[in-house]
Amino acid sequence: MTTPFDPATLRYNEAGLIPAIAQDATDGTVLMLAWMNAEAVAATLATGRVTYWSRSRGELWRKGDTSGHIQRLVEMRLDCDRDALLVLVEQTGPACHTGRRSCFYTAVHAGTEVEIIAPPAGETA
């Protein structure tokens, strides 16, 4: 069953932001976590290019405009409380500003040891 989506039903935090997890729509890799405000959600849905809110710059940030590492929207999903988004994307190039495919490249083992599990693109482990 489908019904019209009302963006006003999303639950933003006190700063007017909602966390958005970007996941590769093809293989399920979790790529990154960023934040969206209502304007970023609207821009993403209207254009098909994933747009976030940059907390450090205080402005909209369309993924890939400066790096060329574009995220094209495949599907946006809402969690049960509507206070988090899952953005399924078609990712061009690395998603992480470190040059890695995913921002989740550091593993903690047994709660005490940290391991870098993915090198930047073009490097070998």
Characteristics of this structure?
single chain; 125 residues; mainly beta; Ubiquitin-like (UB roll); two-stranded antiparallel sheet; globular; cytoplasm; metal-binding
Quick rundown:
By secondary structure, this protein is mostly beta strands. The protein contains 1 helix and 8 strands; from the N terminus they run ββαββββββ. The strands form 3 sheets. A 4-stranded mixed beta sheet has the order 2-1-6-5, covered by helices on one side. A two-stranded antiparallel ribbon has the order 3-4. The protein has a two-stranded antiparallel ribbon with strand order 7-8.
Q: Would you give an account of this structure?
A:
This protein has 125 residues and is mainly beta. The chain has a domain at 8-93: Phosphoribosyl-AMP cyclohydrolase (Ubiquitin-like (UB roll)). The protein contains one helix and eight strands. It has one helix at 38-47; strands spanning 18-24, 30-36, 51-54, 59-62, 71-78, 85-91, 106-109, 113-116. It has a four-stranded mixed sheet with strand order 2-1-6-5, with helices on one face. The model has no long low-confidence stretch (mean pLDDT 94). Its cofactor is Mg(2+); Zn(2+). Residues 32-105 form the Phosphoribosyl-AMP cyclohydrolase domain. Pfam families: PRA-CH.
